[in-house]
Protein backbone atom coordinates (compact mmCIF):
# COMPACT_ATOMS: atom_id res chain seq x y z
CA UNK A 1 0.00 0.00 0.00
CA UNK A 2 1.04 3.58 -0.52
CA UNK A 3 3.14 5.22 2.16
CA UNK A 4 2.85 8.62 3.78
CA UNK A 5 2.96 11.42 1.24
CA UNK A 6 4.11 14.92 2.12
CA UNK A 7 3.92 17.86 -0.24
CA UNK A 8 5.77 19.88 -1.21
CA UNK A 9 9.19 18.34 -0.62
CA UNK A 10 10.99 21.68 -0.61
CA UNK A 11 9.89 25.25 0.08
CA UNK A 12 11.65 28.56 0.25
CA UNK A 13 9.78 31.42 1.91
CA UNK A 14 10.67 34.87 3.17
CA UNK A 15 10.26 36.12 6.71
CA UNK A 16 6.74 37.22 7.53
CA UNK A 17 5.06 35.00 4.97
CA UNK A 18 2.89 32.03 5.81
CA UNK A 19 3.14 28.47 4.57
CA UNK A 20 0.90 25.40 4.38
CA UNK A 21 2.26 21.88 4.33
CA UNK A 22 0.24 18.81 3.44
CA UNK A 23 0.32 15.20 4.57
CA UNK A 24 -1.64 12.24 3.24
CA UNK A 25 -1.47 9.30 5.68
CA UNK A 26 -1.54 5.61 4.88
CA UNK A 27 -5.01 4.48 3.92
CA UNK A 28 -6.98 3.48 7.02
CA UNK A 29 -4.75 5.37 9.44
CA UNK A 30 -6.63 7.90 11.51
CA UNK A 31 -3.83 9.50 13.50
CA UNK A 32 -1.54 12.09 11.95
CA UNK A 33 1.25 13.76 13.90
CA UNK A 34 3.67 16.50 12.90
CA UNK A 35 7.28 16.90 13.99
CA UNK A 36 9.89 19.57 13.46
CA UNK A 37 13.49 18.43 12.96
CA UNK A 38 16.40 20.87 13.31
CA UNK A 39 20.11 20.26 13.95
CA UNK A 40 19.98 22.13 17.23
CA UNK A 41 16.72 20.88 18.74
CA UNK A 42 16.39 17.45 17.15
CA UNK A 43 12.91 16.05 16.59
CA UNK A 44 10.18 17.92 18.40
CA UNK A 45 6.48 17.11 18.54
CA UNK A 46 4.16 19.75 17.12
CA UNK A 47 0.66 18.24 17.34
CA UNK A 48 -1.42 15.17 16.68
CA UNK A 49 -4.79 14.88 14.99
CA UNK A 50 -7.17 11.95 15.30
CA UNK A 51 -10.53 11.82 13.54
CA UNK A 52 -10.36 15.54 12.72
CA UNK A 53 -9.67 16.54 16.35
CA UNK A 54 -6.43 17.79 17.80
CA UNK A 55 -5.61 15.19 20.42
CA UNK A 56 -2.25 16.45 21.62
CA UNK A 57 -0.14 19.54 21.22
CA UNK A 58 3.53 20.27 21.72
CA UNK A 59 5.18 23.37 23.06
CA UNK A 60 5.15 25.59 19.98
CA UNK A 61 3.77 29.12 19.57
CA UNK A 62 0.30 29.74 18.19
CA UNK A 63 1.80 30.59 14.78
CA UNK A 64 1.88 26.84 14.24
CA UNK A 65 -1.51 25.34 13.59
CA UNK A 66 -2.98 22.35 11.88
CA UNK A 67 -6.11 20.57 10.88
CA UNK A 68 -7.29 17.21 9.69
CA UNK A 69 -9.92 16.49 7.11
CA UNK A 70 -12.55 13.75 7.04
CA UNK A 71 -10.33 11.64 4.75
CA UNK A 72 -7.55 11.87 7.40
CA UNK A 73 -5.36 14.11 5.26
CA UNK A 74 -3.75 16.78 7.36
CA UNK A 75 -2.32 20.23 6.82
CA UNK A 76 -0.13 22.33 9.02
CA UNK A 77 0.19 26.06 8.71
CA UNK A 78 2.91 28.37 9.93
CA UNK A 79 2.11 32.08 9.89
CA UNK A 80 4.49 35.03 10.16
CA UNK A 81 7.51 32.92 9.35
CA UNK A 82 10.75 33.47 11.22
CA UNK A 83 14.26 32.41 10.26
CA UNK A 84 14.20 29.88 13.09
CA UNK A 85 11.31 28.04 11.48
CA UNK A 86 13.69 26.67 8.87
CA UNK A 87 13.55 22.92 9.41
CA UNK A 88 12.54 19.55 8.10
CA UNK A 89 8.87 18.98 8.91
CA UNK A 90 7.89 15.35 9.21
CA UNK A 91 4.45 13.86 9.22
CA UNK A 92 3.72 10.54 10.93
CA UNK A 93 0.77 8.27 10.27
CA UNK A 94 -0.58 5.78 12.78
CA UNK A 95 -3.46 3.37 12.67
CA UNK A 96 -4.89 4.00 16.11
CA UNK A 97 -2.97 4.38 19.33
CA UNK A 98 0.38 4.57 21.04
CA UNK A 99 1.08 0.87 20.79
CA UNK A 100 1.21 0.96 17.03
CA UNK A 101 4.20 2.11 15.10
CA UNK A 102 4.27 5.41 13.25
CA UNK A 103 5.11 5.61 9.58
CA UNK A 104 6.86 8.75 8.42
CA UNK A 105 6.79 10.67 5.20
CA UNK A 106 9.92 11.97 3.48
CA UNK A 107 9.35 15.39 5.00
CA UNK A 108 9.08 18.94 3.75
CA UNK A 109 12.27 20.97 3.87
CA UNK A 110 11.31 24.57 4.68
CA UNK A 111 13.88 27.31 4.28
CA UNK A 112 13.02 30.80 5.51
CA UNK A 113 15.17 33.59 4.11
CA UNK B 1 7.09 13.00 32.01
CA UNK B 2 8.55 10.90 29.30
CA UNK B 3 12.14 11.27 28.19
CA UNK B 4 14.72 9.39 26.18
CA UNK B 5 18.48 9.55 26.54
CA UNK B 6 20.72 8.20 23.85
CA UNK B 7 24.03 7.80 25.57
CA UNK B 8 26.27 8.30 22.54
CA UNK B 9 25.91 11.03 19.95
CA UNK B 10 28.38 9.27 17.61
CA UNK B 11 29.44 5.64 17.32
CA UNK B 12 32.12 4.41 14.95
CA UNK B 13 32.63 0.72 14.12
CA UNK B 14 34.47 -1.28 11.50
CA UNK B 15 32.53 -3.23 8.93
CA UNK B 16 31.84 -6.75 10.20
CA UNK B 17 32.09 -5.84 13.90
CA UNK B 18 29.18 -5.62 16.36
CA UNK B 19 27.07 -2.52 16.80
CA UNK B 20 25.73 -1.28 20.14
CA UNK B 21 23.62 1.89 20.36
CA UNK B 22 22.51 2.70 23.88
CA UNK B 23 19.18 4.11 24.98
CA UNK B 24 17.66 4.81 28.38
CA UNK B 25 14.10 5.98 28.84
CA UNK B 26 11.90 7.45 31.50
CA UNK B 27 8.16 6.87 31.58
CA UNK B 28 5.68 6.62 34.40
CA UNK B 29 3.35 4.18 32.72
CA UNK B 30 3.80 1.24 30.37
CA UNK B 31 5.74 2.52 27.44
CA UNK B 32 6.02 1.38 23.88
CA UNK B 33 9.55 1.74 22.57
CA UNK B 34 10.81 2.03 19.04
CA UNK B 35 14.03 2.41 17.11
CA UNK B 36 13.99 4.37 13.89
CA UNK B 37 16.75 4.97 11.34
CA UNK B 38 17.21 8.03 9.16
CA UNK B 39 19.48 8.06 6.15
CA UNK B 40 20.62 11.46 4.83
CA UNK B 41 17.80 13.50 3.34
CA UNK B 42 15.32 10.72 3.99
CA UNK B 43 12.37 10.22 6.31
CA UNK B 44 12.39 7.90 9.31
CA UNK B 45 12.16 4.14 8.88
CA UNK B 46 11.05 1.83 11.67
CA UNK B 47 13.67 -0.74 12.67
CA UNK B 48 11.79 -2.46 15.48
CA UNK B 49 9.27 -1.95 18.26
CA UNK B 50 8.58 -3.16 21.78
CA UNK B 51 4.97 -3.16 22.95
CA UNK B 52 4.95 -5.32 26.14
CA UNK B 53 5.27 -8.69 24.44
CA UNK B 54 8.68 -10.40 24.24
CA UNK B 55 11.46 -8.37 25.81
CA UNK B 56 13.93 -9.32 23.05
CA UNK B 57 12.72 -7.74 19.87
CA UNK B 58 14.00 -8.56 16.40
CA UNK B 59 13.82 -6.00 13.65
CA UNK B 60 14.78 -5.50 10.07
CA UNK B 61 18.29 -5.78 8.61
CA UNK B 62 19.57 -7.96 11.48
CA UNK B 63 18.97 -5.43 14.26
CA UNK B 64 17.55 -6.40 17.63
CA UNK B 65 16.91 -4.71 20.96
CA UNK B 66 16.28 -5.89 24.49
CA UNK B 67 13.83 -4.18 26.82
CA UNK B 68 15.12 -4.16 30.40
CA UNK B 69 12.58 -2.61 32.74
CA UNK B 70 14.82 -2.75 35.80
CA UNK B 71 17.48 -0.75 33.96
CA UNK B 72 14.99 1.35 31.94
CA UNK B 73 17.06 0.55 28.89
CA UNK B 74 16.35 -0.42 25.29
CA UNK B 75 19.73 -0.84 23.62
CA UNK B 76 19.99 -1.60 19.91
CA UNK B 77 22.45 -4.21 18.67
CA UNK B 78 23.57 -5.88 15.48
CA UNK B 79 26.13 -8.70 15.34
CA UNK B 80 27.93 -7.50 12.22
CA UNK B 81 27.88 -3.97 10.81
CA UNK B 82 27.50 -3.31 7.11
CA UNK B 83 28.47 -0.15 5.26
CA UNK B 84 24.80 0.48 4.48
CA UNK B 85 24.07 0.75 8.22
CA UNK B 86 25.73 4.16 8.35
CA UNK B 87 22.91 6.53 9.32
CA UNK B 88 21.35 8.30 12.29
CA UNK B 89 19.39 6.20 14.76
CA UNK B 90 16.63 7.41 17.05
CA UNK B 91 15.26 5.75 20.16
CA UNK B 92 11.62 6.70 20.72
CA UNK B 93 9.14 6.24 23.56
CA UNK B 94 5.37 6.46 23.38
CA UNK B 95 2.97 6.12 26.26
CA UNK B 96 -0.79 6.03 26.38
CA UNK B 97 -0.57 7.93 29.63
CA UNK B 98 1.00 10.85 27.79
CA UNK B 99 -1.38 11.05 24.89
CA UNK B 100 0.48 8.74 22.53
CA UNK B 101 2.95 11.36 21.40
CA UNK B 102 6.33 10.09 20.31
CA UNK B 103 9.27 11.41 22.31
CA UNK B 104 12.58 11.14 20.49
CA UNK B 105 16.09 10.79 21.76
CA UNK B 106 18.71 13.16 20.40
CA UNK B 107 19.94 10.55 17.94
CA UNK B 108 23.12 8.54 17.46
CA UNK B 109 25.10 8.87 14.26
CA UNK B 110 26.60 5.52 13.30
CA UNK B 111 29.73 5.53 11.17
CA UNK B 112 30.91 2.29 9.58
CA UNK B 113 34.54 2.11 8.50
CA UNK B 114 35.72 -0.18 5.75
Textual characterization of the structure:
The complex is a heterodimer of chains A (113) and B (114). Helix content of chain A is 0%, strand content 53%. Chain A is built from no helices and eleven strands. In chain B, strands 2, 5, 6, 10, 11 and 12 form a six-stranded mixed sheet that branches. Chain B has a four-stranded antiparallel sheet with strand order 3-9-8-7, with no helix packed on it. The radius of gyration of chain B is 14 Å and the shape is globular. The model of chain B has no long low-confidence stretch (mean pLDDT 92). In chain B, strand 10 and strand 11 form a beta hairpin.
- In helices, the fraction of residues of chain A equals under 10%
Number of strands of chain A: 11
What overall form of chain A do the CA principal axes indicate?
globular
Strand portion of chain A: over 45%
Q: Helix- and strand-based class of chain A?
A: mainly beta
Helix content of chain B: under 10%
Mean pLDDT of chain A: 93
Characteristics of this structure?
heterodimer, A: 113 residues, mainly beta, seven-stranded mixed sheet, four-stranded antiparallel sheet, B: 114 residues, six-stranded mixed sheet, 54% strand, globular
Summarize the structure.
Chain A is an all-beta fold and 113 residues long. Chain A has strands at 5-7, 10-13, 19-24, 31-38, 42-50, 53-57, 64-68, 74-78, 87-94, 103-104, 108-112.
Q: Would you spell out the secondary-structure blueprint of this structure?
A:
The complex is a heterodimer of chains A (113) and B (114).
Chain A (H helix, E strand, L loop, with lengths): L4 E3 L2 E4 L5 E6 L6 E8 L3 E9 L2 E5 L6 E5 L5 E5 L8 E8 L8 E2 L3 E5 L1
Parallel strand pairs in A: 2-11
Antiparallel strand pairs in A: 1-3, 3-8, 4-5, 4-9, 5-6, 7-8, 9-10, 9-11
Chain B lengths: L2 E4 L3 E5 L4 E3 L1 E4 L5 E7 L5 E7 L5 E3 L5 E5 L4 E6 L8 E8 L7 E3 L3 E6 L1
Amino acid sequence: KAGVTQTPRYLIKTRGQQVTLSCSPISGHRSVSWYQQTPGQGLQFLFEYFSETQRNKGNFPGRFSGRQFSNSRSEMNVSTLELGDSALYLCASRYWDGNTEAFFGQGTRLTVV
Amino acid sequence: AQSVTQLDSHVSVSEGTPVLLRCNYSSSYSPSLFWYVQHPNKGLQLLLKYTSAATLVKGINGFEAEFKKSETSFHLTKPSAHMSDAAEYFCVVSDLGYGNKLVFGAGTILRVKS
